[in-house]
Amino acid sequence: MVNPFDQAWAVLKMTVEESRQTELGEYHPDFPSSYGPVNYYHGTTVGPASRINFEGLKPAEPWYNTQFDKHPKGIYGTDDLEEAGDYASMRGRDRNQSGRVFGIRGGAPEIPTPSETMEGNVRFNEEIPRQYITPMPIPLNQKTV
To answer: Could you report the per-residue pLDDT of 121-134, keeping only the tens digit for each?
Structure first.
């Protein structure tokens, strides 16, 4: 988890090339964004969400890989907000944390690969920078820890 001091230090040490102007669309899905509308959703929990809010989404090995069901490294998402909320709630119970959902805007640098096994699910192979994501409200029917 990134602490406030580390965040402030990183901002102070940024070069001109690393710093950028943020947009309102990075903070709420209903605010305008030059990166387009939210097309996909990524469910997670409060622990990783603090890092995602600062760094964006980075490809990782899925936690649910098993001996029989292997999934490649990536960023997984869905086009269904409720499904992302369900996943976030389920992971929250596993981690004893509250669930969080991020929207991924349509202008993301990569076109995702559709899932062969689950309709509406996608995988991004490359990092999704912070400006392409926005925190989403978890659907009301979702229970958090």
So the answer is: 999 999 999 999 99
pTM assigned to the model = 0.78
Which pairs with CB-CB distance under 8 Å and at least 24 residues apart come from 111-120? 112/40, 112/77, 113/74, 118/78, 120/78, 120/79, 120/80, 120/83
Q: What is the DSSP letter of 86?
A: H
Domain extent listing, the chain: 27-136
pLDDT in tens, 41-55: 999 999 999 899 889
DSSP H helical segments within the chain, as ranges? 4-12, 46-55, 81-95
Nearest to 39 by CA among 126, 134, 143: 134
Q: DSSP letter at 30?
A: T
Residue tagged 């899905």 (tokens)? 29
Class of domain 27-136: alpha beta
